Amino acid sequence: MTLFWIATLILVTIACVFIAIPLIQRKANNDTVLRDELNKAFYKDRLSELEEETQEGLVGDQSELIADLKQSLLDDIPEQGKAVEARQMSTLAVLIPSVLVVVLSYGLYAKFGYYDKVEQWQNISANLPDLTRKLMAPAGQGVQLTDQEMQDLTLSLRTRLYYQPEDSTGWLLLGRIGLANRDMQTAVGAMKHAYALEPTDGDIQLGYAQALMLSDDEMDQNQARTMLERLASRDYVDLRVYSLLAFDAFERAEYQAAIDYWRRMQQMIGPNDARYQMLTRSIASAERSLGQGSDAAADSVQVTISLGGNVSLPADAVLIVSVHTADGAPMPVAAARYPLSQFPRTVVLDDSNSMIQGRKLSDLDSLMVRVRVDRDGNVATKQGDWFGESEAVNLGQPVEVVIDKQY
What we know:
The chain is built from 15 helices and nine strands. By secondary structure, it is of the alpha+beta class. The chain crosses the membrane at residues 6-24, 92-109.
């Protein structure tokens, strides 16, 4: 900030000089000196005229006329006080505009220059190393960035990357922050920059694929799958690669592929890892979706969903499947949300999807299923949504629902 104030002082001084120079020059042209020069020229001309008149005999006493001429010249000399006043006026004529320039420059900057915000921004940028160390602290140390610190870290990173756009690590970190904040525009943009700088780096490829996978654009998702499959074909595969592939396969109802990826992850981490049981539960859920689980027929609901011929679906909608009591009560016993994909499709709901505490889906003897295409992600609003519902069936029987009605 010191350099900033020095620079402003230099600029204001230059402005004052440019204002003062014309005023000084103009005053010099109208100064008393110019008046004296005119009086001297007039005096010399009058002496020449008196000399000619004396030679012609028109003047009797030349010396008396010369004395009167000198006296009139002395009378025309300005008083000392007036000269001092003129110099003072000259000084004020230069000083007042200069003061106005200084006052207006710094006054307007104080009012409209957002000096406090600029100072805050520079302080945040200077705090980048501390924020980065706090972010990268090992898990278990109880160090977690607040929302404000995450915003500060993002701002300071953007500032650094503006001056150092070739820093691929910085772009990668900014992309991960965007993913953590669910800011997909920032995440995809930052990861794209990092990938352009280091296209062969495994961490950057994985981060870019993760960002593209969470994008709403189908082309981005296809590009992410291609990158992940390329990473999965290497001799050493990061566990996160299989995790992303399994998640994507499960979301697209490719349950067998998801099971294969999760089993590979189990082989990599071993049964002693705390994540092993979590993967086992994920595999069991996918098997139930395939109808392979031992209790699938008895304790779950397999729903096959198709679309009516007149249904048009918005690209950003989601699919909501809910299980109700056989009498069609509005409150669902179990429900699940799925991304839109190809139809017809089959989903399976079980006790893990129960909505009412103390009441499981498997407790029902009979039930009915409603399926709705939710356009805005808000289950409370239904206007314009497409839906369908089944007849009452017994628990364990397969259910078919056709989406052909609109609220």
